[in-house]
Design a protein that fits this description.
This is Spindle pole body component. By secondary structure, this protein is mainly α. The protein is built from 13 helices and four strands. The longest helix has about 50 residues. The protein is elongated.
């Protein structure tokens, strides 16, 4: 079984679906069938020549950009998961794949046990890079995706409860007199709410068109961390290849390499400072506002509203990211380093 199959069969959705009697009858056949729902699988993304060159570099931020998820929603789910929605999922997947890779880099590929010998800035670089990537990933997964998706699921659960209540009233009453009394939404309402949910996720993940400058700053910070990881790895492998012993590997690096690491650290600090300054400027600014009726009937109800005239507004949670990154103005302070060493 592959990673997608294992993830699907261990998911909460799959476990909850198995409780239904109709699903239990098909469970054995589904487990023996290699295809996942909607033929979910990995595929190769169509890239430009410049993007292909980046993928060929294992140390670049876009090294895994060639990978994408392929999914064909079956009817009637295809009326909700439209081509536009699948494109938004793909953009989120591409970013989150980069985030997961950055988490692996800061957890396993940065120097440990005192950093790079002779370059004390490498210790600060390692710790700050780990903190930055961890804070950004926690904000993206928890605030950007988790809270938004939970609100969408809560809306769907409420819709399902009202549908069951109507069915129960219809069974107990005369005919279909209760039909449409509690539920006025249809598939179009679910589609609109789903699109609104994805728009909110993309807004929190800095993937909207008007947020391209902020995302570019974030990518530059990640690229600086990857360059530092490559430099640290090259020094470590070089020492081993030269046949140095453990004690010899702890000798200071050449002055030129130490200077490059210090410059990387100053570049990292300056870019983080600019990134946080831009984020502070975004704090308090509201996302786009539009009437729920313009997005589709019933979207306000699914997203927590109480009618079709509810105003749908994207929540700006960038202040949570700033709080995770720092609380004492650390990144605004000047960088102490010795570039003359």
């Amino acid at each position: 079984m592959g990673i997608l199959s294992e993830s699907y069969h261990s998911s909460r959705l799959y476990r909850s679906a198995r409780k239904h009697a109709s699903y239990k009858q098909q469970d054995k056949r589904l487990r023996e069938t290699p295809d996942l729902p909607g033929n979910l699988s990995f595929s190769i993304r169509i890239l430009s020549n410049d993007e292909i060159e980046k993928c060929m570099d294992p140390n670049s931020l876009g090294a895994l950009d060639f990978l994408r998820l392929q999914y064909s929603p079956p009817p009637p789910l295809n009326l909700v998961m439209t081509t536009s929605a699948l494109d938004k999922y793909d953009r989120c997947f591409r970013l989150l794949l980069r985030i997961v890779r950055m988490l692996f880099v800061v957890n396993h590929q940065l120097p440990r046990d005192g950093g790079i010998p002779g370059v004390w800035e490498s210790k600060s670089f390692r710790n700050e890079a780990h903190h930055f990537v961890s804070a950004v990933s926690a904000y993206f997964f928890d605030s950007g995706i988790g809270e938004t998706w939970q609100a969408f699921e809560a809306g769907l659960d409420g819709l399902e409860r009202r549908m069951r209540a109507e069915d129960d009233d219809g069974d107990a009453g005369d005919g279909d007199s209760s039909f449409g009394r509690l539920v006025t939404e249809g598939l179009e309402s679910v589609r609109a709410a789903h699109e609104e949910c994805l728009d909110r996720v993309m807004f929190a993940l800095l993937l909207r068109r008007r947020q391209q400058a902020v995302m570019r700053l974030l990518e530059e910070i990640f690229e600086t961390i990857l360059a530092f990881a490559k430099r640290a790895s090259a020094y470590g492998s070089g020492g081993a290849a030269a046949g140095r012993g453990y004690g010899e590997q702890l000798t200071a690096v050449p002055a030129e390499e130490a200077h490059e690491v210090r410059e990387m650290y100053m570049l990292f600090r300056s870019k983080v400072n600019v990134f946080m300054t831009v984020c502070r400027g975004l704090t308090g600014k509201r996302g786009s506002r539009r009437a729920a009726g313009g997005a589709g009937p019933g979207v306000g109800l699914l997203l927590g509203g109480d009618g079709r005239d509810v105003v749908v507004e994207e929540d700006n949670t960038i202040d949570r990211l700033l709080l995770k990154l720092e609380m004492n103005g650390y990144y605004g302070a000047p960088v102490a380093t010795d570039l003359g060493a």
